[in-house]
Amino acid sequence: MTASPASSADRTTTAKPTGIGNVDSSSGTRVSTSSSSPVHQPNIRKMRNWEVFPGRNKFLCDGRIIMARQTGILYFTISLILITVALFFGFECRLTLVTHLPFGFFIPIVCGLLFLFNMGCLLRTAWSDPGIIPRASPEENAYLERCLQDENTHEYRPPPRTLDITINGAPIKLKYCFTCKIFRPPRASHCSMCDNCVENFDHHCPWVGNCVGRRNYRYFFLFVTSLTFLCLFIFGFSVTHIIKGTWSKKRNRDNQNPFDQGGLWKNCCYVLCSPLPPS
Question: What does the record's free text say on domains (predicted)?
Fold first, then answer.
């Protein structure tokens, strides 16, 4: 008894491997040999805006602090304020506590509060966004170039330098920034130090190491005002101490200075023109 062709074909059929799986000989269906677990894809971290920022700025604390790259004068400003207040606390406040008891305790307290408020306004001005206007995205820039393209010759025409608009019934001219590829809003300007368009741009202050614009103008104003009061406070008590010391010497005229040569002019001549002492 011979075997039928169908039965012999069933015995000789084998599954051929493919790139995806094998074929089951009995059912003809493809059996997957790959793992049932999903393919692991590495996590790709998206870039933050401050990491690809095109301006000349420096970012700290994961982009929460924005500064200009030229920060040397800012540190010099902080050092001047710290040294002045430290000298006032070390000399004038110490003498004032002795001579103006019991109200002398209020003088260092007021000076300390003015100092803390002044430093807070300074750091807030230096570390905050002054009102930087985002630059045009590549899509917006491409759309603008298509709009400015000549329909007949398909040649690129440069954008107009101004754009006339109306705000509250008044005609306003918007200037085009060729660096940021945008029409700047009214009162905005491009800072050459930071290479950014800043809204309500006032000026770039090197003493605070940042631009002064819409978002930090109030803190800059408070910094200048508090610094003025702090300087007047320290200067006033220093002059008062000098005047009181002068009047106390005049009240004690009987105590003559043994090194006095008889006047200001004679004292200067003695110091500058007298013979050198022997070595």
Answer: The DHHC domain is required for palmitoyltransferase activity.
